[in-house]
Amino acid sequence: MEIINYKNGSANGGIIINGKDQYIAVTEYSNKKFKSLRGAQKFLESYGYKEVRGKHSIGGTQYRSKDRNSRAEVYPGGQDEYGRDLFRVELREDNGHVEELYMTRTKLNRWLDQFGFERIEGTIRRYPEGEIETYFVDEDKFIPRGEYRETDLDRRKRDVDFLIKEVYGSRNVIEFNRPVYLKENRSVKRLNNNGYVYDVTDSVLERLKREYSYETDF
Prior knowledge:
With 218 residues, this protein is of the alpha+beta class.
């Protein structure tokens, strides 16, 4: 699993590449699956995110030994000569010693059980510069099922001039939150009579972005 990192100011985002034709674009408030890398890139760019060059990372899983003296970080490790998937294990002792191992899935599961390792929920991202980011779930921040709480994104969508509703090919569907009349031509087509929904080309969308405030609402 490869992760391409994006940022929009202080907000983090990215594209998770999970096998062929599986691209998940993630922003601070939402995520969306795509069948192509370009679709995921356009989704993030429409939010104002830019790729962080040189910071591609690999998602990993972290385990801690029962005696608490060591931890194991497990990452995809390619394939062996027989075509079997391998996992790269970084065994980190609390005394600073680090050992790198390569194992098949069967051997990895047996090794984790043998040495009493337990999985720690979260995702590891290790970058070439040596920086590590680990993400954990904070159950106290979950919203109970059935309860709605307005988010900053909800407020922004309500206050902007228009929403980008859909992106397909070189065209886009947008909806204005107030009466705005665009002249129809080959690049602009109005989709309804009662609202202000338009089908526009990429070039028209870029011009409208400079003139109006907007958010993406996929």
